[in-house]
What we know:
Layout: H1 18-29, H2 44-65
Amino acid sequence: MTDRYHSLTVVLEKNIRIDDAESTINAIKHIKGVLSVKGNVADANSDMAESRAISELSQKLWHILYPQKED
């Protein structure tokens, strides 16, 4: 069995201003498989858990609103 990553950490070369980081954040958001990107997260584990929970609930709600038709 192969190990799986649940997140990747990006370390910036130096601290940058929020407005300067906007283009970098937008670029990361366009990478395949990226669910969310946020800067200056105090507790990364809780942020990842919240993002996953929101994503899971959104998918469930989508399937309720638009159920797949059985053939």
